Amino acid sequence: MNNRLPPAWSKHIKPGPAPKAKGPILKPLVNLQQGNAQSRAQADDALLKQAYIHQQAKRLDEAQDLCLRVLARTPNHPLALYMLGTLYLRYDNERALRYFARAVGEDPKNPYYHLSLGEAYVKVSEYSPAIKHMQYALELQPGLVEALCALGRVYTEFDKPDMALPLYEKALKINRDHPKVRVGLASALAGMGRMDEAAVYLKEAIERRIGVPAAYSELVQTRKFTGEPEELQSILR
User: Fold this and answer.
1) Is 205 exposed, middle or buried (0-12, 13-18, 19+ CB in 10 A)?
2) Nearest residue to 172 via CA among 132, 136, 211, 201
3) Comparison of pLDDT for 17 and 215, the residue scoring more
4) DSSP assignment, residue 93?
5) CATH number of the domain at 144-228, please?
6) Region(s) of the chain under CATH 1.25.40.10
7) Which of 20, 51, 119, 139 could lock 66 by a disulfide, CB 3.0 to 4.6 Å apart?
8) Calpha distance 154→166 (Å, rounded)
9) Band of residue 175 on the pLDDT scale cut at 50, 70, 90
10) CA 54, chain centre distance (Å)
């Protein structure tokens, strides 16, 4: 709304002296409100740090309660929503998906939120949105090894190992000791029929003690196709 008087009226009005203050001038409440917001944010952070400690110690109920306390005070807190998603993943994938989706809605530029939402979509067998969110996570952070491996795994499961291979190769250049890189790379190579190369990466993983159980399991699978089992020769004789 414009408070300026029309020109025909304004020339008849003479400015008078400014009124004197009759009491103390009240300071605006902006600083007080900012202080309250900061203290609330600090309290939320402290609760979520404690929730993370509980989660790492497998005290999931305590972690959930703290996250819900944060949401009761700060609705749609993105990190609280994200942590609840991680708590429910594998136990209630549909619920985890909803929490991750809300976290993405509150903080759409966070690559980890998109990655986790994509992984939740994989859990409920919705692969198209899973790929979409994993790809977007990589647009936001191209060197995110977890996203490279997750997307590579989806492509391998979709019988597209040729699309997975460059993702794992990029991940290997970024972090050669990540537990999912060599096993995923070997799986992609095996899917392309390159068993000997796959075995090399799996043996490297075992020698480096990186993801040993998964590496052994994958190595057994590659050996099924690289030659006849020794036991077969004794049967044929």
Assistant:
1) buried
2) 201
3) 215
4) H
5) 1.25.40.10
6) 42-142, 144-228
7) 51
8) 13
9) very high
10) 19
Q: Which tokens belong to 38? A: 């900061």
Joined together, the tokens standing for residue 25 give 């001038």
CA angle 193, 198, 203 (to 5 degrees): 155
Contact 153, 163 (CB under 8 A): no
**pTM of structure:** 0.75
Nearest alpha-carbon partner for 64 in 88, 100, 39, 89:
88
Closest CA to 223 of 197, 204, 195: 195
Q: Which two tokens stand for residue 35?
A: 């202080």
Reported as half-sphere exposure (CB side, CA atoms, 13 A), residue 126 has a value of: 13
Q: Which CATH architecture has domain 42-142?
A: Alpha Horseshoe (1.25)
Classify the phi-psi angles of 209: left when phi > 0, otherwise alpha if psi is within -120 to 50, otherwise beta: left
